[in-house]
Amino acid sequence: xxxxxxxxxxxxxxxxxxxxxxxxxxxxxxxxxxxxxxxxxxxxxxxxxxxxxxxxxxxxxxxxxxxxxxxxxxxxxxxxxxxxxxxxxxxxxxxxxxxxxxxxxxxxxxxxxxxxxxxxxxxxxxxxxxxxxxxxxxxxxxxxxxxxxxxxxxxxxxxxxxxxxxxxxxxxxxxxxxxxxxxxxxxxxxxxxxxxxxxxxxxxxxxxxxxxxxxxxxxxxxxxxxxxxxx
Length: 231
Known about the structure:
Mean pLDDT: 86
Strand content: 15-25%
Shape: globular
Low-confidence stretches: 218-231
């Protein structure tokens, strides 16, 4: 066994993969910073406009740390979370048949930003049993090519990974699409059978923590919802 050759192979593999993942991670960090600025700009503009119409409607941006930002739009809360890991498209993905990935498989590694929709009251009243919904996720590789997998317009407007590159305008459009979807995604009354039985603890605590589980769609599954369009 040629230990020296094996050691060289290990070094080359670690060097290639590690440098690539650092490039992807650094790029998604930069894009997430731009996204935060976009969220603030969109939020501030809507806030200023809404203040002239009805000051009861709250629109507020919040920077929640290096990997998270929130935008409250009235009763809805959009949470944008950047994942700390780098992901590779599954080999069953049709993108691997494209010349873009065939020419350079490293282009199939992406950073991911998840977009969740919650009821603002779920956070306000610390209702830890409430449900939030993944409405989209943004994939960006080291060359700034991107796509979005998600619901309705989030799923079909931004799915040209081979040709599309992300920039501030694209991120602004994604944010606007996420807000539009969330506003059109209304809170529905859950089935009577789902809420007909509650514990004494739930009823006693409902006045201060509102622990009865609430969500826009109880039983909602991202993968099976008809609103989804695969990117």
